[in-house]
Amino acid sequence: MSNNLIDTSFTFRVQALAVLGSVLLLLFIIHLIKKEYLREGYSLLWFFIAIVLLVFSVFSNLLLKFSDLIGIYYAPMTLVLIFLFGLILIVIHFSVLISRYEKQIKELSQEVGLLKNKLEKQTKTK
Amino acid sequence: MQRICIIIPAYNEKGTIGKVIDSIRKIDKSFDLVVVNDGSTDKTIEIAQRKKIEVIDLPFNLGIGGSVQTGLKYAYLNSYDIAVQVDADGQHNPKYLPSLIRSLSDNTDMVIGSRFIQSSSYQSSFLRRLGIEIFSFLIKLTCKKKIYDSTSGFRVFGKKAISFLAKNYPIDFPEPESIVKLLKHGFKIKEVPVEMNQRQAGQSSVTPFKAIFFMSSISVAIIIESIREKQLNYE
Asked: Of the residues A82, B41, B172, B234, which has the fewest C-beta atoms closer than 10 A?
């Protein structure tokens, strides 16, 4: 009962591009890890996304089955959707982190200001 | 005469920190103790201050990695020869301090008080033991050195290790990751058998699911740490 439209939408050219893109992403993440630009948790997260994309690119029958399941006719769109969904989660997570860091920076700044004041008081009374 | 700094990272340990401080002082009065208060919300810091020891009061919680590194930075800035980590929860027994410190030498940069070199009476859940075996295997695989207890925080650092770790200390899982970092940069690590006390304030509420998640995370962190390039800025 496979839909002909889905089966032909994931052409060889698109598949090759998808595999290439996933592999490049993977290599880039590994490069960032080696240079210590990424903390372990984030390394794992991006690595996971790159692997998922690679798996769906290489095993096109998986991609096609999944597309059929959600009702998408154009299989490459499924890859984009998976990637977008992952991105949304990551970006929301970043908003949470940024909120936390803003609070920490504010506390640090206040503490520094108060410390400076304390120090000036101490040197004045010498 | 070697100057020794005992670093006590503390997060809400008002129940045990007083006893820990007293028991360390009993071992050797020449030890310099410093408590790193990691944003405790209880009376941990008051207890430490009342005992008249150095306290570094962090503005907010950094976790065990950040607080231990703060202690190492303190040791480095004050030119200590030796730094020791003793946890504030009472699991580390100070009676082992002399033998741990003695094991430092010209060709040993860090000494770990290890629970699992010899069979000890330390009770651990099966999953925890399994995890530690896995970490041991991964460290052997990536660094070619067998470390039996990679999660023990009971450690003694020599001058070179202090200088290196003060600038490069891992955040997520400091105990196993710092071992990998040190080994990859050519530092020498030795283990000395110790007995640790069980957690005094109740069992940690870790479900098996969480335990497996932690084990996988630490395993991955060990692998990731092992492929990192060497830092060029130490010493």
From this structure: B41
**Could you report the per-residue pLDDT of B173-209, keeping only the tens digit for each?**
999 999 999 999 999 999 999 998 876 554 566 788 8
3-state secondary structure of B12: coil
Do the chains contact at A40 and B59, CB–CB below 8 Å?
A: no
DSSP summary character for residue B117: S
Predicted interface score ipTM higher than 0.85: no
β-bridge partners, B113: B192
The per-residue b/e assignment along A5-22, b for 16 or more CB within 10 angstroms, e otherwise, is ebeebbeeebbeebbebb
- pTM value is 0.87
Pairwise CB contact (< 8 Å): A40 & B220: yes
B9-67 pLDDT tens trace: 999 999 999 999 999 999 998 999 999 999 999 999 999 999 999 999 999 999 999 99
* Alpha-carbon separation of residue A79 from A23, A91, B132 (angstroms): 14, 18, 38
B173: which chain A residues are within 8 Å (Cβ-Cβ)?
40
Interface of B with A (CB under 8 A): 59-60, 170-173, 177, 217, 220-221, 224-225, 227-229, 231
Beta pairing partners, B32: B5
CA pair distance B75, B64, nearest whole angstrom: 16
Contact residues, A window 87-126, toward B, CB-based 8 Å cutoff: 104, 107-108, 111
Model confidence at A111, pLDDT cuts 50, 70, 90, reads very high
